[in-house]
Amino acid sequence: MKNTAIIGLQWGDEGKGKIVDFLADKFDAVVRFQGGNNAGHTIKVDGKTFKLSLLPSGVIRQKFSVIGSGVVVDPISLFDEIEKIEKNGVKISPQNLAIADNVCLVLSLHRQIDQILENKKGNNKIGTTCRGNGPAHEDKVGRRAIRICDLQHQPTLIQRVEELLLYHNALRRGLNEPEISSLTIFDELNSIKDKIAKYAVPAFEIAQRLEKCNAVMFEGAQGALLDVSYGTYPFVTSSNISLGQVAVGSCIGFENVHKTLGILKAYTTRVGSGPFPTELTDEIGEFLRIEGQEVGTVTGRNRRCGWLDLVLISHALKLSAVKEIALTKLDVLDKLAKIKICVAYKINNKTYNYLPQNIELWSKIEPVYEEFDGWQTSTLGIKSLKDLPKNALDYIKKIEELTSAKVVIISTGAKREETIIVN
Ligand code: IMP
Q1: Position 393 pLDDT exceeds 70
Q2: Residue of 38, 57, 65 whose CA lies nearest to 263
Q3: Nearest atom, ligand 1, residue 128 CA
Q4: In the chain, at which end, N or C, are there fewer CB atoms within 10 A of the end residue's CB?
Q5: Does residue 314 line the site of ligand 1, with CB under 6 A?
Q6: Which helix (H) or strand (E) holds 410?
Q7: Cβ contacts of residue 414 below 8 Å, gap of 6+?
Q8: Which of 3, 22, 25, 42 is nearest to 326 (CA)?
Q9: Is 13 one of the annotated active-site residues of the chain?
Q10: Quick one: DSSP state of residue 79?
């Protein structure tokens, strides 16, 4: 197996967790390279449901799991997740979990300011997960974040906390919010610093260890349409998600990323605000939400649902040079009589094969659809391509034709074994 990057091709929640877990057996290591605990991966194995947010999905199979330098880590949330997953029978230790020691921390002040700023936005809310990930990324590029490696040396830490609070208290004064004392932050950091230290590994050592692996999987969180540079800005997350981020966030060189697998859900969902040209606000949208159990893993919010949008997906494919796709949740479409795929947009009578970045045009988008007959028979749990109904095969062929990518895996249910390997 080659070193493989797993990239979501929509607005997240494509079912990456299941595919990563399904493939993890073939890899020695699984690396998270971006995002933070805003991500949510649900994995069902042997009747148990695991909900992961920061931990790489490889932990379930006891693979060497890395939280790379591109991730921001909320330590309180991480230890909470570790406790829950250990109660579910998975052992986490420094033998199977390494966190790059230059990772920037998400603190309570980030969670607070995320919520405060979101509340101030009124009708223009981004719909963030309010996990503080956005503000933590801002502090990272503002060069005032606190990293794991800062925690053990008191004089360094004092200086870092002062710099962080200089900025945050100025911001909070401007927003009429009470200032935060350095004591509060020190208490918070002291409560986690020894616990997190045992997992902290210099990025250089992680790179050396990954180089010795036969096959490494790079596990993306969110999806390409939430990429801060190329997504539906400003309704995006705060990190880069596309292929370019894999090397930056994984502590390794780009020549060590050999292959990309794009994860595509058979229809589209999004949580939070922002454009969604193929959104269905009718009974079919409701059907997809219920049938697909489309509720956010992290926030519990209902996901917005709609038809597959090949305009957006084609862009996502290009950004990460994706040639192979894992198609998920095909079974959710089983009962539909008609299924549509959006193949272009019409805006003011002009046809677009990409999403224009001008926000003022978004409300004028009219999706151009191709319509297909549904298969109206259960595909749940099918394990072989030959057992899929003809109309489902036609739908898959159409996706391949429109994307010029090959569907190599088809997921027909939430369980690990409910999967078809095409190639
Ligand atoms: P943030 O990443 O919490 O700042 O949220 C920014 C946007 O990204 C919001 O619309 C969130 O709903 C969305 N988002 C963040 N993480 C995920 C995810 O893992 N899946 C789906 N949407 C996400």
Answers
A1: yes
A2: 57
A3: 5
A4: C
A5: no
A6: strand 406-411
A7: 18, 42, 44
A8: 22
A9: yes
A10: H
Q: Which of 32, 51, 137, 271 has most ligand 1 atoms within 8 Å of its beta carbon, as the pocket-test mutant? A: 271
Nearest-CA residue for ligand 1 atom 8 is 237
Express each pLDDT in 256-307 by its tens digit.
999 999 999 999 999 989 999 999 999 999 999 999 999 987 788 899 999 9
Give me the residue label for tokens 């420094």.
Answer: 94
Q: With beta carbons less than 8 A apart as the criterion, state whether 334 and 375 touch.
A: yes
Share in percent of the chain as helix, strand, coil (round to 5) = 35, 20, 40
Confidence of residue 17 (pLDDT cuts 50, 70, 90): confident
Active site residue 315: no
Tokens for 250?
A: 């994984």
Work out the average pLDDT over 223-249: 96
- From residue 151, give the alpha-carbon distance in Å to each of 131, 165, 400: 21, 16, 49
Return d(Cα 229, Cα 274) in angstroms, integer: 15
Answer whether residue 423 shows pLDDT above 80: no
Q: Which amino acid is at 44?
A: K
DSSP-derived 3-state class of residue 45: strand
pLDDT 10s digits, 147-156: 999 999 999 9
Please give the span between the terminal C-alpha atoms of the chain, in angstroms, as a whole number: 13
The crossing angle, in degrees rounded to 10, of helices 154-174 and 182-197 is 130
Residue 326 confidence (pLDDT): 98
For the Cβ of 74 lying below 6 angstroms from any atom of ligand 1, the answer is no
The tens digit of pLDDT for each residue in 30-65 reads 999 999 999 988 888 888 889 999 999 999 989 999
Of 409, 39, 52, 23, which Cα lies nearest the Cα of 223?
39
* Atom from ligand 1 closest to the CA of residue 273: 10
pLDDT for 1: 67
Phi/psi of residue 16, nearest 5 degrees: -65, -40
Sign of torsion over alpha carbons 326, 327, 329, 334: negative
